[in-house]
Specification:
2 domains, Creatine Amidinohydrolase, 33% helix, 10 helices, 19% strand, elongated
Length: 392
């Protein structure tokens, strides 16, 4: 297909061509080690990692066919073609029309390239592989091998270029969180807080997010993953604010808490425990340490304070490339009991210890960090104290 003179190949790419070539070469090494001849990549995060292609239109079918030997080919909807040209350096695209059946189109592409009789795998771990697609590929091609983890394992450790993207995203989060905390006052609504947070983050440079902010006030804060629903702040209310921001699809996140007036002792004590648990966990982070160690350190602090039943979750999760419905990379790597993977320099995580009394309040604090050669580096700059706002 001819490239329009108005769109230059790679003009909106997030990285130089050489970065994608390096990533594809490492992916081919994983394919060879797994005895896979070609990998069909459907997850938008993995597609972005390997090619730079990004679009909110990933709800329609797209797939990268990456052979262990030879050039990749992209199967894409007609409407997305010039988006693909602008974002990638891949010259080979097979374009289907809205009247085509895209999975049959993909199979034809695989057959045309002589791969149908080879060992073909697909990235099963992503959000966007419908059962019908997988079953159709099995019916048409025979055995489809499991390619889960072949690309995700490469994404766990970020390059210096990727860390720069996360640093930019973290600077947007700082702007958004400062604005959100400044908006906490009697009479302001949850919507006011979110408008302030997102307005400031977007003005600073953030793109669209993988997940909406988690913002609630009053007793609504005691419901996990509560989102804004217009409730106005009253005297004595808590406010819970968690948000992410995005730079070139790389996400950083942050959680902070506020209270109108002086918080009750139980809330102050729980917040103190969150702060201590976070710092103890951070102090446990260094290369060579299993991912479960910071979680266990955090859990020990929480257990010693008597809040075991208020904390039934992992300490944290990998962050980096994200599309909706998540701002994290939790399917890649978690800071949780039983996770023996060793930390390496360049891994990046969001650590959000939060304690709640269900239906009454939640308090919490977090950091997005990068693992360094000697420990960790927090990417945010906002203090971790519980913000107390005057009740008049």
């Amino acid at each position: 297909m001819n490239i329009s003179s108005g769109v230059v190949q790679g003009q909106e790419s997030a990285f130089p061509k050489e970065e994608y070539e390096r990533r594809q070469a490492r992916a081919r090494e994983n394919l060879a080690a797994a005895d896979i001849d070609a990998l069909v990549v459907t997850g938008p995060e993995n597609i972005f990692y390997l090619t730079g292609q990004q679009t909110p239109g990933y709800y329609t079918f797209q797939a990268l066919v990456l052979p262990a030997a030879g050039d990749p080919v992209f199967v894409i909807r007609q409407l997305e073609y010039f988006n693909f040209i602008a974002n990638t350096f891949i010259p080979d695209a097979e374009v289907y029309q809205d009247g085509d059946e895209p999975v049959s189109f993909l199979v034809a592409v695989i057959e045309k390239r002589g791969l149908a009789s080879k060992r073909v795998a697909i990235d099963k771990r992503g959000w966007f592989l419908p059962i019908a697609v997988y079953e159709t590929l099995q019916t048409r091609l025979g055995a489809i091998h499991d390619g889960a983890g072949l690309i995700e394992s490469l994404r766990a450790v970020k390059s210096s270029l990727e860390v720069e993207k996360l640093e930019r995203a973290a600077s947007y989060v700082d702007k958004g969180m400062r604005a959100g905390l400044a908006a906490v006052r009697i009479g302001a609504s949850e919507n006011d807080l979110v408008a302030a947070m997102m307005g400031a983050a977007i003005s600073a440079g953030s793109e669209y997010l993988g997940m909406e902010p988690l913002v609630s006030v009053g007793p609504r804060t005691g419901v996990p993953h509560g989102t804004w629903r217009r409730r106005e702040i009253e005297a004595g209310d808590p406010a819970f604010l968690e948000m992410a921001a995005c730079h070139d699809r790389y996400h950083a996140a942050l959680m902070r808490s506020a209270w109108i007036g002086s918080p009750p002792k139980e809330a102050a004590d729980m917040m103190k425990t969150c702060q201590e648990a976070l710092q103890v966990a951070l102090d446990a982070i260094r290369p060579g340490v299993p991912c479960e160690v910071p979680h266990i350190a955090c859990q020990n602090v929480i257990d010693a304070a008597g809040y075991t039943d208020n904390f039934r979750k992992r300490l944290g999760y990998s962050v980096g490339i994200s599309f909706a419905p998540d701002w994290g990379e939790g399917a890649i790597l978690s800071l949780n009991a039983g996770v023996k993977t060793e930390l390496q320099p360049g891994m990046t995580f969001h650590l959000p210890p939060a304690l709640r009394i269900y239906g009454r309040f939640t308090v919490g604090v977090s950091e997005t960090i990068v693992v360094t050669e000697t420990g960790y580096r927090a990417l945010g700059s906002i203090g971790r104290e519980l913000l107390e706002v005057a009740d008049h």
